[in-house]
Design a protein that fits this description.
The complex is a heterodimer of chains A (354) and B (543). With 354 residues, chain A is of the alpha/beta class. Chain A has ten helices and 17 strands. Chain A has two domains: 177 residues, 3-Layer(aba) Sandwich (Rossmann fold), CATH 3.40.50.740; 155 residues, Dimethylsulfoxide Reductase, domain 2, CATH 3.40.228.10. In chain A, helix 5 links the parallel strand 6 and strand 7. In chain B, strands 6, 7, 8, 9, 12, 13, 16, 20, 25 and 26 form a ten-stranded parallel beta sheet that branches. The two termini of chain B are 35 Å apart. Chains A and B meet through helix 2, helix 3, strand 5, helix 4 and helix 9 of A and helix 1, helix 3 and strand 18 of B.
């Protein structure tokens, strides 16, 4: 099976690696997008440092909202395991990404063993489309503020909890207030996937208000698990979350240089569909593929993290990084292996950030 | 490869060596002077002081809470000046990469991250593995976790508790155990807002004292070289000296280490009800030989407090500067990140003076350890300035002259004449940490030791001298020359490896299945997950 191509022509991996390195070495403004495990991300960032590239995760826009909440405002959060064991009231805020369906089901089917109530109530703040049908019949009370959006509904909820009057009250607030009064540890589930900055800030304001008189917290469900793993690695390696660039020789916040990029490296060791950054920009692709990617000047086949090779990934079930064993080991190389091969070709080894 | 470090003033208190002489290195080890040996490389150390590489026993350099602080405070980078130039990621501020470079430049070759959440051990070790040059180690946190508190409540046997502690150390690749405000994080989840040494965690009926004593005994019986590392209750509270005194008295003949004692050495005298209790606690430490402490010195300027003492951090939210915090309820402790600016006002000056009092009034340099509780009291990049304050009364007086007299009048600092000698510095930062951690292969310059060597060019400016080493060897590699990194390498994490008890593993598997809906392997990892060659180095337990 061919595993590398230059244009549409099959080639040896080492030739494709050398060609990719040459393109990166001569690029003035390369950009990288990735969707890979922690070690793939570490390799991406190390390569970005060497060639002066800017990098971002494929879900960068939503992740930027997750990140901005912490960077700009801070938060009160709880570990998912502790939420499972302690939350006697669960409030789902906005649309929870599809990937967390299993966790929501688990919350519905389990009881909080560290709570006196040994049962939990569910609420939803958000549009009806977000009404989770996945709670196996568990009752979910939806709170809304008419046609107002999520941030307005959260603002109204916060104001009503503080005893203030509002122009558009939240529906079923009395049910919410009664549940809140009886709950020992309410937990609000949120994600940057569906919530804008104002909604996230308003939610944290509500949680902070509640903690003046009782305990409460929020459970962060990142817009993308692989993206949050990449964020953590980026933060410890550079001091910054993505979107970060090395265009000036040091890491700095670097939103995509729209129209400036002259080379695009796409790395996907998952199943996400990656779209090219810009038309006419030469493209290098590392992905699990059996054929060259249309329009790519270089395509190198890599394995899927956790399937073809062992991996380290972020897990929203544990709220931290976990090690996974390959479910169907194959000879396909990991993203990290290929990227390191490219790095070696780019130039002489100096101090290596990873 | 045979290297001779020639003509330096060797200060090696562990081997009672002090004076001019040569030091020989063969590959990664220090060796006796070989008879007729010809060195492949000679380092001229004339006019220099030669010591073992320094060891920092308590510095928050990696892991979940540290990374959250980085995320919260991209603007914090300026607090970690000076930065190395012309190195990869050189402007990254307080990245893992720069952490290793900055420590190495000062002659530190081993650093302990003292607060690893067991559930986040993989994350912590991945960060530590990305810190270049130096060796690292971690202490695993217990004492607020449901599993342990339930065992204590249910009168589990000491052997069963030891099996759990041993499993935790082994599975998380830790060098020891730390307890942080024992029971308080668990109590906080039940809406308890203050928690002292004899307070009880509601759902468990277990006191903080009981938790500390249980872990202290387990650590001792397991032969863990480092005593239980205790972060006491009531950190930062006026009157916390009483809590620290109670904890010291509770050592009761068994080894116990109290972390960052400065943050507890607060009395309630004066019109502000905030005064120095350093002299009282120093006297108590001096008279309690089984107790060791580190300081957690405060130095002025912007920093960020990072602690798994979630109750304390929650209480401190109002002091945040800038005004943003993260408070996290974890599976055990969780933690909090609260940025803080130590100003030279009454309170900041009092804290600064208290730390120095403790350093200078605790008489045995083998039992007092050099820390700022990085970054809680100050970033570790302030170490050179702190060395100067300890070694020069004139430097202290010059600094104190800029501070409020109202604060200094409530401390004994101005009356203390003591100045640390280089030998005492070598004990406090080399020989004693190695002994405390059970690291017989470092902290000294005897034959057989790992060739971790720091060479400083003598000068009147102590901070300059100790802030930028003339030469640093790590495992025999010359990594620093004239204060600059000249060679990159990857260190290892030092760990204990007590064998797991099979019955305990089965019990933990069932526990995780039932309580978290996940198998135990979601919380453990193989060495290969670190993706480096030999990421760990085993340290033996006491036999």
């Amino acid at each position: 099976m061919a595993v590398a191509w230059i244009g549409n022509r099959e080639t040896l991996v080492e030739h494709a690696v050398a060609h990719a390195a040459a393109l990166l070495g001569s690029s003035r403004c390369p950009v990288f997008t990735f969707d890979t495990d922690v070690h793939g991300t570490r390799a991406v960032i190390a390569l970005a440092e060497r060639v002066g590239a800017a990098y971002d995760h494929v879900s960068g826009a939503a992740l930027a909202r997750d990140t901005a909440l912490i960077t700009d405002k801070g938060a009160m959060t709880i570990a998912p395991g502790e939420a499972r064991r302690r939350a006697d009231m669960v409030v789902i805020v906005g649309d929870v990404p599809e990937t967390y369906r299993g966790f929501l089901t688990d919350l519905a089917e389990s009881a909080p063993d560290l709570s006196e109530k040994n049962a939990r109530e569910f609420f939803l703040v958000g549009p009806s489309r977000a009404m989770p049908s996945l709670l196996n019949g568990a009752k979910v009370t939806r709170l809304s503020a008419g046609k107002e959006g999520l941030s307005a509904a959260l603002a109204a909820l916060r104001a009503q909890c503080a005893g203030r009057k509002v122009s558009t009250p939240v529906s079923k607030f009395d049910d919410f207030a009664a549940a809140l009064a009886g709950a020992k540890f309410p937990v609000f589930l949120f994600s940057g996937q569906s919530s804008d900055a104002l909604a996230l800030e308003m939610l944290q304001g509500l949680v902070a208000d509640l903690n003046r008189k009782k305990r409460a917290s929020s459970l962060h469900l990142p817009a993308s698990e692989s993206g949050w793993g990449g964020t953590l690695a980026s933060v410890w390696m550079t001091g910054f979350a993505a979107r970060t660039g090395f265009g000036r020789g040091f890491p700095e916040f670097d939103p995509w240089p729209e129209g400036e990029a002259d080379l695009h490296l796409r790395v996907s060791s998952g199943k996400s569909g990656l779209t090219p950054k810009g038309k006419g920009v030469p493209l290098i692709v590392l992905a699990k593929t059996q054929k060259p990617v249309a329009g790519a000047v270089v395509t190198i086949a890599i394995g899927e993290a956790g399937v073809d090779h062992d991996a380290v990934v972020y897990s929203a079930r544990t709220g931290t990084l976990r090690s996974t064993v390959a479910s169907a080991p194959s000879a396909l190389p990991s993203a990290a292996e290929i990227i390191r091969s490219i790095s070696v070709r780019v130039g002489p080894e100096a101090g290596w950030p990873c | 490869m045979l290297t001779r470090i020639s003509g330096g003033e060797i200060i090696d208190p562990a081997n009672h060596r002090a004076g001019k002489g040569d030091l020989w290195i063969e590959d990664d080890r220090i060796v006796e002077a070989p008879e007729g040996g010809v060195a492949d490389k000679v380092i001229d150390a004339t006019g220099c002081i030669v010591m073992a590489g320094a060891i920092d026993i308590h510095s928050h350099i990696g892991g979940g809470n540290v990374n959250t602080a980085r995320l919260l405070l991209p603007e914090q980078h300026a607090a970690h000046l000076p930065r190395p130039a012309a190195t990869p990621l050189s402007n990254a501020g307080w990245s893992t990469f720069e952490t290793g470079c900055l420590y190495a430049k000062m002659g530190f070759t081993t650093v302990v991250e003292p607060a690893m959440s067991p559930g986040a051990a993989l994350h912590t070790h991945l960060e530590l593995a990305d810190i270049p040059i130096i060796d690292k180690a971690t202490l695993a946190i217990l004492g607020n976790d449901d599993f342990l508190l339930s065992m204590i409540r249910d009168n589990a046997s000491p052997a069963m508790i030891e099996d759990y502690v041993a499993w935790t150390i082994g599975a998380t690749r830790a060098l020891g155990i730390k307890v942080i405000n024992a029971g308080a994080a668990a109590a906080f989840k039940e809406d308890v807002r203050t928690f002292s040494f004899d307070d009880v965690v509601p759902s468990y009926g277990v006191s903080s004292r009981k938790i500390v004593k249980t872990l202290q005994a387990a650590v001792d019986r397991l032969g863990v070289p480092h005593p239980l590392h205790v972060h006491c209750n009531n950190l930062g509270v006026a009157g916390a000296a009483d809590t620290a005194a109670e904890t010291i008295s509770a050592a009761e003949g068994l080894p116990l280490h109290l972390a960052h004692l400065q943050f507890y050495s607060y009395g309630t005298e004066g019109k502000r009800k905030f005064s120095s209790a350093a002299a009282r606690l120093a006297e108590l430490v001096n008279g309690t030989p089984e107790v060791t402490i580190d300081i957690g010195q405060v130095m002025f300027g912007q920093t960020v407090t990072i602690s798994s003492d979630v109750l304390r951090q929650f209480s401190a939210r109002g002091t945040a500067s800038p005004k943003k915090t993260v408070i996290h309820d974890g599976d055990g402790n969780g933690g909090g990140v609260v940025p803080y600016n130590y100003r030279n006002n009454f309170y900041g000056s009092m804290q600064w003076a208290i730390g120095l009092e403790l350093f200078l009034l605790i008489t045995d340099p083998w039992r007092v350890f050099f820390t700022t509780d990085h970054p809680n009291g100050a970033p570790f990049t302030t170490y050179p300035a702190l060395f100067e304050l300890l070694m020069s009364r004139a430097a202290r007086e010059a600094a104190a002259a800029e501070l409020p007299k109202a604060a200094l009048s409530l401390s004994t600092l101005s009356s203390i004449e003591r100045e640390y000698s280089f030998e005492e510095i070598a004990i406090m930062t080399r020989a004693a940490p190695a002994k405390l951690l059970g690291l017989s292969d470092r902290g000294h310059l005897g034959a057989g030791a790992i060739a971790d060597v720091a060479i400083y060019r003598r000068g009147h400016d102590i901070a300059k001298m100790l802030g930028a080493a003339a030469f640093v060897f790590k495992n025999g590699d010359l990594v620093v020359k004239d204060g600059q990194i000249i060679h990159y390498r990857w260190g290892r994490a030092l760990r204990l490896n007590p064998p797991p008890d099979k019955a305990m593993v089965r019990r933990l598997e069932n526990y995780h299945q039932q309580r978290y809906g996940l198998s135990l392997d979601w919380f453990t990892f193989p060495d290969s997950a670190i993706a480096r060659e030999e990421p760990f180095r085993e340290v033996p337990c006491r036999s």
